[in-house]
C-alpha cells in the first residue's frame, strides 16, 4: 500500500499536510449530481489512507459542502488539516452575489464556516478570490485578526497575482497560494512561482487533472447535462477546443502506458514533481468516488525521470491547450 508522505507549505508560517490532498467541491456541486453518501465514504477512505489535507469552501453547494466535510470529520478532527475559503459570496438559493473581501464579511464568513464545519478552528483559511474593490491589506488585516483570535491557524490566497501576494504577505505571512496548475494550465510559472519561492509560500494546485480531462475519461458524450463542464463555463470542453485537447490527452496516455500507470496518475506525478526544497506543493485533486481517490493516491508511487519530464513537455507544450480555462476570467487577479 502507498505510504503517504507529508509536505510543508510555507516557511515563514509552515503548515505540514499530506503530500496529496482531497478537493471536496464536486461532492456537492458543479460536476454532476451531488452525492453525500459517496462523498462521506470518500472522505473517510481518504483519512484511512493518510490523505488528511481536505479542501472545501463556503460557496460550494452553497454551504452544503462545508456541512458534509464537517459531518465526515466528526470524531476525527485531530487527523485533518482543514482548509476552507471565503470571498465568493452566494445567497441561500445559490445566486452569485460577487466577490467580497470587506473586513466585516471576512469575520462573519469565518464564523459561519466554523459553525457549518462543527470545529473551533480552521487550519488554512483562504481568500477565494481577490476583491478588487477592497485593498488586500484590509482583507488580510481582518484575516490576521482571526489568527490572533485562534479561529484560524494559517492564511492563504487563491488566484492572486504576484503583486497581490507580496502586499498580502507584508501584512501577515501567507502560508499557501491555491491556484489552478496542471499540465494544461501553467500560467503560474512566469511570475507567481518565483514569487512563492522567494517569499517562502507553498502551492496548492487545484484542478491538477485539468478538470478531469487528463484522466483520459472525458469524451464529447461523457458529461451529464448538469455538469458545469458541459454548460459553457469552461471553453476547453467545447467544440474544436475539446477535440484538440483530447488529442493532447492521447499523447499523455501513450507515455502513461509506457510508465505502467494511468494518464491521471502521470499528470498528478508531473504536478508533484514541480515541488522542491524551495516550494512545497500539495495538489488537491477532487473526486466523490473512492475508486478515483485510490487511483489518485497511487500517483505518489509514480517517479518521473528527466526523460519522462522532457517527453511530457514535448507531448503537451506550454500553450498548446486550446481555449481559456474559464469563459469568464474577470474574477482572476492579474
Automatic annotation (TrEMBL):
Instruction: List GO molecular-function terms, semicolon-separated.
Output: oxidoreductase activity
Pfam families assigned to the protein according to its UniProt record, in alphabetical order? Aldo_ket_red (PF00248)
- Keyword terms: Oxidoreductase
UniProt cross-references to InterPro entries, sorted A to Z: Aldo-Keto_reductase (IPR050791), NAD(P)_OxRdtase_dom_sf (IPR036812), NADP_OxRdtase_dom (IPR023210)
GO CC term (a single one): cytoplasm
What CDD domains does the database record attribute to this sequence? Answer: AKR_AKR13A_13D (cd19076)
Occurrences of domain NADP-dependent oxidoreductase (ranges): 20-315
Protein name as catalogued: Aryl-alcohol dehydrogenase-like predicted oxidoreductase
Amino acid at each position: 500500500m502507498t505510504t503517504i508522505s507529508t509536505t510543508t507549505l510555507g516557511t515563514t508560517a509552515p503548515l505540514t499536510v499530506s503530500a496529496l490532498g482531497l478537493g471536496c467541491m464536486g461532492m456537492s456541486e458543479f460536476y454532476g449530481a451531488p452525492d453525500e453518501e459517496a462523498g462521506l465514504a470518500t472522505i473517510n477512505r481518504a483519512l484511512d489512507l493518510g490523505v488528511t489535507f481536505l479542501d472545501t469552501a463556503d460557496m460550494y453547494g452553497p454551504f452544503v459542502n462545508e456541512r458534509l466535510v464537517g459531518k465526515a470529520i466528526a470524531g476525527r478532527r485531530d487527523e485533518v488539516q482543514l482548509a476552507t475559503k471565503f470571498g465568493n459570496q452566494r445567497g441561500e438559493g445559490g445566486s452569485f452575489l460577487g466577490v467580497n473581501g470587506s473586513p466585516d464579511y471576512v469575520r462573519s464568513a469565518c464564523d459561519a464556516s466554523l459553525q457549518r464545519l462543527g470545529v473551533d478552528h480552521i487550519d488554512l483559511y483562504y481568500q477565494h478570490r481577490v476583491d478588487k474593490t477592497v485593498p488586500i491589506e484590509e482583507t488580510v488585516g481582518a484575516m490576521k485578526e482571526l489568527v490572533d483570535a485562534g479561529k484560524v491557524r494559517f492564511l492563504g490566497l487563491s488566484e492572486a497575482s504576484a503583486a497581490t501576494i507580496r502586499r498580502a504577505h507584508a501584512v501577515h505571512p501567507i502560508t499557501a497560494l491555491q491556484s489552478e496548475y496542471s499540465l494544461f494550465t501553467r500560467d503560474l510559472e512566469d511570475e507567481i512561482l518565483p514569487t512563492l519561492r522567494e517569499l517562502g509560500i507553498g502551492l496548492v494546485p487545484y484542478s491538477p487533472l485539468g478538470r478531469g480531462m487528463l484522466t483520459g475519461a472525458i469524451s464529447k458524450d461523457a458529461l451529464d447535462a448538469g455538469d458545469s463542464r458541459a454548460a459553457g463555463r469552461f471553453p476547453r470542453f467545447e467544440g474544436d477546443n475539446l477535440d484538440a485537447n483530447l488529442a493532447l490527452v492521447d499523447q499523455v496516455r501513450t507515455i502513461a502506458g509506457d510508465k505502467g500507470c494511468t494518464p491521471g496518475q502521470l499528470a498528478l506525478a508531473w504536478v508533484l514533481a514541480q515541488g522542491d526544497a524551495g516550494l512545497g506543493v500539495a495538489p488537491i485533486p477532487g473526486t466523490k468516488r473512492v475508486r478515483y481517490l485510490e487511483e489518485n493516491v497511487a500517483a505518489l508511487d509514480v517517479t518521473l525521470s528527466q526523460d519522462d519530464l522532457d517527453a511530457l513537455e514535448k507531448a503537451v507544450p506550454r500553450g498548446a491547450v486550446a481555449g481559456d480555462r474559464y469563459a469568464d476570467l474577470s474574477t482572476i487577479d492579474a
